[in-house]
Amino acid sequence: MIRSITKQKGTEEIVALLEGIERVFIVGCGTCVTMCRTGGAPEVEEMSQRLTGVGKFITGTMMIPVACDEISHEALSEHDEAINQAEAALIMTCAFGVQTIGRQLQIPVIPALDTLFIAKERGVGLFEEICTQCGDCVLGDTGGLCPVTSCHKGLVNGPCGGTNNGKCEIDPDKDCVWTLIYDRLKAQGKLDRMRRYQPPRNNQVSPMPGKIFIPIEERSE
Q1: Count of CB atoms within 10 A of residue 46's CB?
Q2: Are 110 and 146 within 8 A, CB to CB?
Q3: What structural domains and CATH numbers belong to the chain?
Q4: What distance in Å separates the CA atoms of residue 66 and residue 209, rounded to the nearest whole number?
Q5: What strands, in cross-sheet order, belong to the sheet with 23-29?
Q6: Are the C-beta atoms of 40 and 34 separated by less than 8 Å?
Q7: Tens digits of per-residue pLDDT, 85-123?
Q8: Pairing of strands 211-213, 109-111
Q9: Tell me: the pLDDT tens digits for 44-83?
């Protein structure tokens, strides 16, 4: 299952984004952010109380089934009255949802979350980055395995000198992706592709590969 991994912005940043705005409508989402526990029903309620505590008036809240779905306007329309009373909507979804909802509302939309990366669920509560959406895909030369997200150093020409018995020198419990690439290309008879030079990339924006573990626990009623 593919998910957008997010984290909540700090209260100080959210309040700053809402400067000059008194009446706020809050939108959560029932998919990725619910699983990440950053924008589900409990988090929307918590945010409502938090903003009320700093003097904001919450005109209403809603949980949209899939915020990034273009038909989300149908769900939004059910809350027209509360939305029309608001000066802005605080959107507790991934960046895709913020932009989708922003196209459908006349009032400003304020993001409450930061979108970190796109991940695949590998186990219960364990999400591993599979794509940074870098716009410069090298999968055709790497046997369908992404070194940009799967290598701790983000090497697109590998392996490095630290690989040891097929393991990463930074995380000894992790398979070296360049060893996996070698094995796959060898099995496909495409080892010549490893000799193709890939130009350097800018890897200073964020650490990689992205990885997050979300503990699963019972919520109190």
Answers
A1: 12
A2: no
A3: 2-116 (3.40.50.2300), 135-200 (no CATH)
A4: 27
A5: 57-64, 23-29, 88-91, 109-111
A6: yes
A7: 999 999 999 888 888 888 888 888 988 998 888 877 777
A8: unpaired
A9: 999 999 999 999 999 999 999 988 887 788 899 999 999 9
